[in-house]
Design goal:
It comes from Hoyosella altamirensis. The chain has 101 residues and is an all-beta fold. It has strands at 21-28, 39-43, 49-54, 60-65, 70-76, 79-85, 91-98.
Length: 101
């Protein structure tokens, strides 16, 4: 069992989205159905592992990062997938990851 906090689209109280760079999104299957329990990894621009969370039951995940180029990779029993996101400044930056076998 992973000790990661519950993920979701709503930011925790006290988080200032004008000062924080937040990467948030959803893991979905090929049919668009949410994939809960997927391991979602954040990789930097060189492909180095930075962080990992477990997607919520509705497939939601969230990372606090710095501006730059990131790869977000999902690993699940339903398959794997990845997406890129390049936030240039603070704010909430959304990305969807579609997994397939």
């Amino acid at each position: 069992m992973c000790g990661a906090p519950v993920q979701g689209q709503n930011l925790p109280a006290g988080v200032d989205a004008e000062k924080e760079t937040v990467i948030t999104g959803k893991v979905v299957g090929e049919a668009g159905d949410p994939i809960g329990g997927a391991f979602v990894r954040l990789l930097d621009s060189t492909g180095e592992f930075t962080a990992e969370v477990v997607a919520s039951g509705s497939g939601d995940f969230r990372f606090f990062a710095a501006p730059g180029t990131w790869t977000v990779r999902a690993l699940s029993a339903s398959g794997n997938g990845e997406a890129s996101v390049s936030p240039e400044s603070a704010g909430v930056h959304e990305v969807s990851i579609t997994v397939s076998k």
